[in-house]
Write a structure and sequence with these properties.
single chain; alpha+beta; 14 helices; about 45% helix; binds adenosine-5'-diphosphate; histidine kinase; kinase
């Protein structure tokens, strides 16, 4: 034995300064346990201070149950027994204690058995170290890793083993006891670019010591296709790579959101292009049509008397066809104009309905119409488009009226969860169940040419206008029983929110 060690032992035995020093400053506490009556344990002041108690009022200090976590206490008994059975097994454990203010304090308890003259294990002496801060930091790290879905992995190149932590296993959707093999781990990456990339990067990390950080696609054990970020860091020893370890993160949500935004902007650009095309095409188409109409007029005026009757009848058909074409082109122009950038304004739907009603009523002076309407709301919207919406709905109600009954058109509104709901009701010819959704499609008409004028664009425009205002449009009807067209429109707050 070293003379200093011997001297230290002697001094400790004699008590005094050495023992005092040990008691007051050794780590975060000392403990001394009676193995013959394990309820008896002495702890020094440091221990009590770590739990927030004042050692000056020592007799009042709590002992026994409640101070320590019951599970940790039971584990402690098991470990002490293991140490007693084999002193080669050190006693080393982190126990949870209750601080005076109620929070949990983590103390690392290490100790060793002390024997009496006959060699019987009678006492244990040990130390406490407060590891609360480390434990809390670990827990915080773990919960942030959980939230960010970050796991860890390592490949030991000498032993050939792989380690995946809990989160890495969770991302792969394998069970907690899954033991990965290297080739198997690689095969989780999606065949093709992803698998080739990870193989190349891993190989370069091992051979050239180069780290990597990449985003790849993975197919989980349950067959889900997800995006992951894989970061790898080689560990070199004597110029040779002995281990590659890294971070593994589930970035599927972020990638899917990015893809959605990209797809949306492509779609948006495409539909803008289409609208631009429709605008130019319909604008340019009207010019030659005007020329045809002009010359038809000239022929009618100048040659009416000299032309055979059949030719005049063909001329009427041509005039009718050019008129229909003109209507069609105008409709297309309206359709493309609806998408131009506009300014949102406060619109009084009641006033708008009154204007449309008056206009259409005077245009249809021969038709006896009974209009009724309730207080329609003030909304945020595009006035011109909302006017076109009312014109189309009320116009259709007039067009598809029943000849045997007085036409009644009403406009009502209700405040619903989806915003304002406006209902335009007529007592006209009605629509069959099977056509209730298709009539909103472009060029969809339920009647052959001749009976009703029109081009099948009106309701497609209505749909576009309602969607522009963040709403929905639908119809309830039965053949011969009239129709009610409903549309919703967001309130000002809802529209501003998003
Ligand atoms: P159109 O120019 O033919 O009126 P719309 O797109 O406005 O085109 O309407 C599509 C079809 O829906 C119409 O052809 C008609 O058959 C039917 N429809 C629209 N509104 C009504 C209504 N109020 N009552 C009965 N049928 C209607």
């Amino acid at each position: 034995m070293h003379y200093l060690q011997r001297e230290f032992a002697e001094r400790t035995k004699s008590g005094g300064t050495v023992l005092g020093l040990l008691q007051s400053s050794a780590l975060d506490g000392l403990w001394y346990l009676d193995l013959e009556d394990r309820a008896q344990e002495w702890r020094n002041n440091q221990f009590w201070r770590a739990l927030g108690y004042d050692p000056a009022v020592l007799p009042l200090l709590p002992t026994g149950p409640g101070l320590t976590n019951a599970d940790d206490q039971a584990e402690s008994t098991r470990r002490i027994d293991a140490h007693l059975a084999d002193p080669g097994t050190p006693y080393d454990q982190v126990l949870r204690y209750r601080h005076q203010d109620g929070r949990t304090v983590h103390l690392r308890r290490r100790g060793a058995v002390l024997r009496d003259d006959k060699g019987n294990a009678t006492r244990m002496l040990g130390t406490h170290t407060d590891v609360t801060h480390e434990r809390e930091t670990e827990a915080l790290l773990k919960s942030s890793q959980q939230a960010a879905r970050i796991g860890t992995w390592s490949v030991d190149l000498r032993g050939g083993s792989i380690h995946w932590d809990e989160m890495t296993k969770e991302i792969h959707q394998v069970s907690a006891d899954f033991v990965p093999q290297l080739s198997e781990a690689m095969n989780f990456y999606k065949a093709g670019t992803s698998r080739e990339t990870i193989a190349r990067l891993f190989d370069r990390a091992v051979r050239e010591g180069e780290s990597f950080d990449t985003e790849l696609q993975l197919v989980t054990a349950e067959g889900n296709d997800i995006w992951v970020r894989s970061i790898g860091q080689p560990e070199m020893k004597d110029g040779e790579c002995i281990r590659v370890h890294g971070i593994f993160q589930d970035i599927n949500l972020r990638r899917r959101e990015e893809e959605r935004v990209i797809n949306y902007s492509i779609l948006d650009a495409k539909s803008k292009e289409m609208e631009q095309f429709a605008y130019i095409a319909s604008h340019d188409l009207r010019e030659p049509l005007l020329t045809i109409e002009g010359f038809l007029e000239v022929i009618r005026e100048d040659f009416a008397e000299t032309l055979p009757v059949e030719v005049m009848s063909y001329m009427r058909t041509i005039t009718g066809a050019t008129k229909r074409m003109d209507e069609l082109i105008k409709g297309l122009l309206d359709y493309s104009r609806l998408s131009a950038i506009k300014q949102l304004q406060e619109v009084n739907l009641k006033e708008l309905f009154e204007i449309v009603m008056t206009d259409l009523n005077s245009a249809m002076s021969g038709v006896n119409i009974e209009f009724s309407y309730t207080d329609l709301p003030l909304v945020m919207g595009y006035p011109l488009e909302l006017k076109v919406l009312f014109q189309n709905l009320v116009g259709n109600a007039i067009k598809y009226r029943r000849v045997d009954e007085r036409l009644m058109i009403s406009a009502t509104c209700a405040d619903t969860e989806l915003g304002w709901q406006i209902n335009i009701k007529d007592n006209g010819i009605g629509i069959a169940q099977k056509d209730l959704t298709t009539i909103f499609k472009l060029y969809r008409q339920l009647h052959g040419k001749g009976k009703y004028t029109g081009n099948g664009i009106g309701l497609a425009n209505c749909m576009k206008i309602v969607e522009l205002h963040g709403g929905d449009i639908w119809v309830e009807s039965e053949l011969g029983q009239g129709s009610t067209f409903h549309f919703t429109i967001l309130t000002r707050e809802e529209l501003e929110e998003g």
